């Protein structure tokens, strides 16, 4: 009987925590609007665009980014998103650059959503992909390769992809967010048309829900000590 009571309490605690988290999720959406900023060709100084998030409660559970870039040569581009605490997600890092391809992919632009868990954008030509007016479309995981964009192709083959958008999880969203893009090889230039992001936050677990889970744990400990 005691085992059944403990099971009910523990299950109720997990349910309450899950329900509270789902119920209290907050979405913050940002869209830069039309920027149409030229990304200087073969210039590591690049361009940046920033926005300030304020008044958003809770802690980040996920971030998605949209990029609209036209023209140029996709394999030339390096882009990252920096959050308020200085964490950096590498969005693009010379896509297509490998030991076997020293130039990267030659398509002209991106109109994409970047979201962890999707196929990695660095190797998008290895998957089924679509181009619209030369731009890559669809939903892709950010590149995540936190190495110098001037590295050899072989290093890209073996580099970790851990610098994805998950680097922002569990952080506070409020503060300055900065998108940076540069073009690191000559030939043609790209244009940053617009960008955006969606931040999903969740609160800390509510006290009453934690108390229920705590009660289940206390019951288990007392039951063990009574043996």
Entry keywords:
36% strand; 3 helices; 7-stranded mixed beta sheet; 227 residues; 2 domains; 11 strands; 4-stranded antiparallel beta sheet; alpha+beta; Jelly Rolls
In short:
By secondary structure, this protein is α+β, with helices and mostly antiparallel strands. Helix content is 21%, strand content 36%. It has three helices and eleven strands.
Structural summary, described in words:
With 227 residues, the protein is an alpha+beta fold. The protein folds into two domains: 1-24 and 204-227; 25-202, Sandwich (Jelly Rolls), CATH 2.60.120.260. 21% of the residues lie in helices and 36% in strands. The protein has helices at residues 2-23, 153-158, 207-225; strands spanning 26-31, 37-39, 43-53, 59-71, 77-82, 88-93, 109-114, 131-132, 135-140, 175-183, 190-202. The strands form two sheets. Strands 1, 2, 4, 7, 8, 9 and 11 form a seven-stranded mixed beta sheet that branches. A four-stranded antiparallel beta sheet has the order 3-10-5-6, with no helix packed on it. The longest helix has 22 residues, at 2-23. It starts with a helix and ends with a helix.
Set down the secondary structure blueprint.
Layout: H1 2-23, E1 26-31, E2 37-39, E3 43-53, E4 59-71, E5 77-82, E6 88-93, E7 109-114, E8 131-132, E9 135-140, H2 153-158, E10 175-183, E11 190-202, H3 207-225
Parallel strand pairs: 7-9
Antiparallel strand pairs: 1-11, 2-11, 3-10, 4-7, 4-11, 5-6, 5-10, 8-9
Helix pairs in contact: 1-3
Order of helices and strands: HEEEEEEEEEHEEH
CATH class of the largest domain: Mainly Beta
CA-based gyration radius: 22 Å
What is the total tally of β strands? 11
CATH superfamily of the largest domain: Galactose-binding domain-like
Strand content: 35-45%
**CATH architecture label of the largest domain:** Sandwich
Shape: globular
- Taken together, the total number of domains comes to 2
| Overall pLDDT level | 87
